[in-house]
């Protein structure tokens, strides 16, 4: 009787046949939360430990330009912190397609590097942590801006826009996601920038309904 090949051999055979069965998970915590723009099989809201989300990455393409860079988020190592977002499961041909797309959007155009992290689904009682790929802009990348006061960050966001739209949209959609999908989380950095921005532009009061679908 023919024996089933061991898992590693079976995976190798599947890979040879281009039928990658093991999914890849990609964790988003900024624009990927509300604009993944790649095909995925499923998604989960949850968090990663050991990082804080900070508007410390400059952006001269998507939400700014060379003269007036926008500000987008990256992750700062922070042992006691958690960052909430969305993990996307990509399978089969979705894996190569999503990585090719994100390499251009995040790495080439955005200055982000990749790292593997442990993602904790918000329904953690029912689910084990999942290894996920995340894009992080380190202080060594050429468009890194680093810390600034929330007021200065808000002022920079107000005057910046790029090929993907206004920097205000980027901030408000992320704040919106956190308010509606992670209401238990107090992201002081994010919401104090939103507050500073609304104090400068009172017309941008909070939306009644979520702008983001997950
Ligand atoms: N890597 C973070 C941040 C991603 C991010 O915001 N990257 C910028 C590149 S500078 C982007 O894709 N912007 C697209 C947009 O602003 O719509 C994430 O996982 O969401």
UniProtKB/TrEMBL annotation:
SUPFAM superfamilies, sorted: Gamma-glutamyl cyclotransferase-like
Catalytic function, reaction form: glutathione = L-cysteinylglycine + 5-oxo-L-proline
Example of a GO cellular component annotation carried by this entry: Golgi apparatus
Principal subcellular localization: cytoplasm
Domain of life: Eukaryota
Coiled-coil region list: none
EC annotation from Swiss-Prot or TrEMBL: 4.3.2.7
Subcellular location: Cytoplasm, Cytosol; Golgi apparatus, trans-Golgi network
InterPro entries hit by this protein: ChaC, GGCT-like, GGCT-like_sf
Family annotation (Gene3D superfamilies): Gamma-glutamyl cyclotransferase-like
Residues spanning the signal sequence: none
Keyword set, alphabetical order: Apoptosis, Cytoplasm, Golgi apparatus, Lyase, Neurogenesis, Notch signaling pathway, Unfolded protein response
GO biological process terms on file: apoptotic process; glutathione catabolic process; nervous system development; Notch signaling pathway; response to unfolded protein
Any one Gene Ontology molecular-function term assigned to this protein's record: gamma-glutamylcyclotransferase activity
Any single Pfam family the record assigns to this protein: ChaC
PANTHER family: CATION TRANSPORT PROTEIN CHAC-RELATED, GLUTATHIONE-SPECIFIC GAMMA-GLUTAMYLCYCLOTRANSFERASE 1
Protein family according to the UniProt entry: Belongs to the gamma-glutamylcyclotransferase family. ChaC subfamily.
Function: Catalyzes the cleavage of glutathione into 5-oxo-L-proline and a Cys-Gly dipeptide. Acts specifically on glutathione, but not on other gamma-glutamyl peptides. Glutathione depletion is an important factor for apoptosis initiation and execution. Acts as a pro-apoptotic component of the unfolded protein response pathway by mediating the pro-apoptotic effects of the ATF4-ATF3-DDIT3/CHOP cascade.
The protein's name: Gamma-glutamylcyclotransferase
Organism: Gopherus evgoodei (Goodes thornscrub tortoise)
């Amino acid at each position: 009787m023919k024996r089933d090949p061991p898992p590693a051999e079976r995976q190798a055979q599947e890979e040879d046949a281009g039928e990658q069965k093991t999914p890849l998970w990609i964790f988003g915590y900024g624009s990927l939360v509300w604009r993944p723009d790649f095909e995925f099989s499923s998604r989960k809201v949850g968090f990663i430990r050991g990082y804080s989300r900070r508007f410390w990455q400059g952006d001269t393409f998507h939400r700014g330009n060379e003269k007036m860079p926008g500000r987008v988020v990256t992750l700062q190592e922070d042992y006691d912190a958690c960052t909430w977002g969305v993990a996307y499961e990509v399978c089969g041909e979705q894996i190569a397609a999503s990585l090719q797309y994100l390499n251009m959007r995040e790495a080439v155009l955005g200055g982000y590097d990749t790292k593997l992290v442990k993602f904790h689904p918000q329904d953690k009682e029912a689910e084990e942590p999942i290894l996920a790929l995340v894009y992080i802009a380190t202080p060594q990348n050429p468009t890194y801006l680093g810390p600034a006061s929330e007021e200065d960050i808000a002022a920079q966001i107000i005057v910046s826009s790029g090929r993907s739209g206004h920097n205000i949209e980027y901030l408000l959609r992320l704040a919106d996601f956190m308010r509606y999908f992670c209401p238990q989380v107090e992201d002081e950095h994010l919401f104090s920038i939103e507050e500073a921005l609304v104090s400068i532009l009172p017309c941008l009061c909070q939306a009644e309904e979520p702008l983001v679908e997950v």
